[in-house]
Structure of N-(5'-phosphoribosyl)anthranilate isomerase:
Amino acid sequence: MKVKICGITDLETALASVEHGADALGFVFADSKRRITIDRAKEIIGVLPKDLLKIGVFVDEQREMIERIVDETGINVIQLHGNESPADCASFSIPVIKALSIESANDLLKVDEYECDYLLLDSPKGKYRGGNGVAFDWGLLADQKVEGKKVILAGGLTCENVGGAIQLVQPYMVDVSSGVETDGKKDKEKIKGFINEVTKEEGK
């Protein structure tokens, strides 16, 4: 089971996440309280392990800007968290994660429209696309399995509920942001605890 820590804004948290076993780090280039500059992301990514997934999160961003950020920072996976079409997602040369907001079983019908490398299933949008700390009904995924896709589960995950979410959904990866924060800042102990819970669940 892989773990993504999203909303990285400083080197210390990035390195701590890697040390505790994170497989992927997310850098938000969209409107968010966790938004990061190109220069800051480049500085952090430059010292991270080569095989780590460094995921750039974008919402309805122009293709040219996405490609510029990828080239300048070393991002090696693109996450599209807006209203991007299947054609948009298929047009990039590096792996793409398409995020879908899940409110009802009907929303799961959209998954077959996308042929990208990963699908991230998240809660309905709040003030921002993602990172709102709200879970959707994971039972929808237990009733209607997503076949043939690498599913990343996001939305309201915490140390307390990630084990149950994994049992129910069996995703490829779990994605956490606000669930490992204290007072709006990444908390290294919560990151460690979250990854430990995932590892514990994997070992069962």
Notes: DSSP finds seven helices and ten strands in the chain. The mean pLDDT is 91. The radius of gyration is 16 Å.
